[in-house]
Amino acid sequence: MKKPNYLIIGGTGKTGRKVVNSLELLNQNVRVGSRSASIPFDWNQSATYGPVLEGMDRVYITYQPDLAVPGAFDAVSELVSIAKSKGVSKLVLLSGKGEVEAERCEQVIMESGLDYTIVRANWFSQNFSENFLLEPVVQGVVALPMAEMKVPYVDTDDIADVVVECLLHEEHNKKIYQLTGNERFTFPEVCELISSATGREIKFIPVTLEEYVQVMKTMDLPEIYAWLIEYLFSHVLTNPDNEIITQDIEMVLKRPAKSFRNYVKLTAASGVWNQAVHLEN
Ligand SMILES: NC(=O)c1ccc[n+]([C@@H]2O[C@H](COP(=O)([O-])OP(=O)(O)OC[C@H]3O[C@@H](n4cnc5c(N)ncnc54)[C@H](OP(=O)(O)O)[C@@H]3O)[C@@H](O)[C@H]2O)c1
Question: 10 Å Cβ neighbour count for 81?
């Protein structure tokens, strides 16, 4: 039987690059979908959807910046319709746990008539090292709202491993997996963990959502990112469902979810949180 061809959208991103690595180690045929790939793919230009889907059998979909933003539903709908016309057989969608807006996009995948798996992830551990929370940690001052929220952060290694399983094996068809870590932490607790692992003081300052949004508006951020961060804090983190710890990682991978404490140790050892200190030296 012919080996399937895999398209990994966002294949150089936080989860996508790990999915690409694992599939390549398994000697699978992999194509990266991104603006800088050899066949450029841009969510904002639907004319790029057809060429990248040509000849593909199974597709991992990560939408940038987030399935909740205006325009995501139309873009995902168009991609799915072109994927069908090109003979794609299976879709695996990365979605956000507790994100009601993202569920509209999930519906498009579930009603496509193709095989599918929905992978709903909680907040990534790597938001502190590869995303918008890296800079405050490097600067040593983390000012955030919702100080009391307890988040079961999920490691992108686990998300990628689950996605690879779903892409490879039929038993995951028509399933919705909800991925979380196995321990919950508030933002002040995260700062304490990072402080003790790096040996630097990472100060936590509680602010209101209004204060946080005001500060973001003074920064040079694209409008959609400021909107998205406000949405994530006001609608997603406040969703009580997001405090619930699930066992789906262990169910799919037959091993426990990776620990957030260990993520902090490994990331501290990588030096990424000491960038400023290194620059001064
Ligand atoms: N962060 C969280 O805590 C969290 C939690 C749950 C769900 N999610 C979901 O995760 C998804 C993002 O996945 P991720 O974090 O793995 O990816 P990511 O790291 O945010 O994405 C970066 C990748 O996307 C590509 N990219 C960026 N803009 C693009 C565009 N306009 N068109 C095509 N490709 C583009 C980049 O390559 P180029 O620069 O070459 O284009 C790169 O390959 C979002 O939909 C979000 O809702 C995130």
Answer: 13
Distance CA 222, CA 203 (A): 27
Question: 42 CB under 6 A from ligand 1?
Answer: yes
* 281 within ligand 1 shell (Cβ under 6 A): no
The Cα 58–Cα 42 span in angstroms is 18
DSSP, collapsed to helix, strand or coil, labels residue 17 as helix
Q: What is the domain count for the chain? A: 1
Query: With a 6 A CB cut-off, is 10 part of the ligand 1 pocket?
Result: yes
Ligand 1 within 6 A of CB of 94? yes
Domain that holds residue 163: 5-122+155-180+244-258
- Ligand 1 touching residue 62 (CB < 6 A): yes
| Domain-embedded: residue 48 | yes
- The best mutation among 18, 34, 134 to test binding of ligand 1, ranked by most ligand atoms within 8 Å of the C-beta, falls on 34
CATH of residue 93's domain is 3.40.50.720
Question: Is 11 part of any domain?
Answer: yes
Among 18, 21, 62, 122, the mutation site with the greatest number of ligand 1 atoms within 8 A of its Cβ is 62
pLDDT tens digits for range 173-222: 999 999 999 999 999 999 999 999 999 999 999 999 999 988 888 887 88
Instruction: Provide the CA 208 distance to its chain's centre, in angstroms.
Output: 25
For residue 127, give Cα distances in angstroms to 29, 115, 167, 232.
Answer: 29, 30, 25, 13
Give per-residue pLDDT as tens, 91-117. Answer: 999 999 988 889 999 999 999 999 999
Secondary structure percentages of the chain, helix, strand, coil, to 5: 50, 15, 35
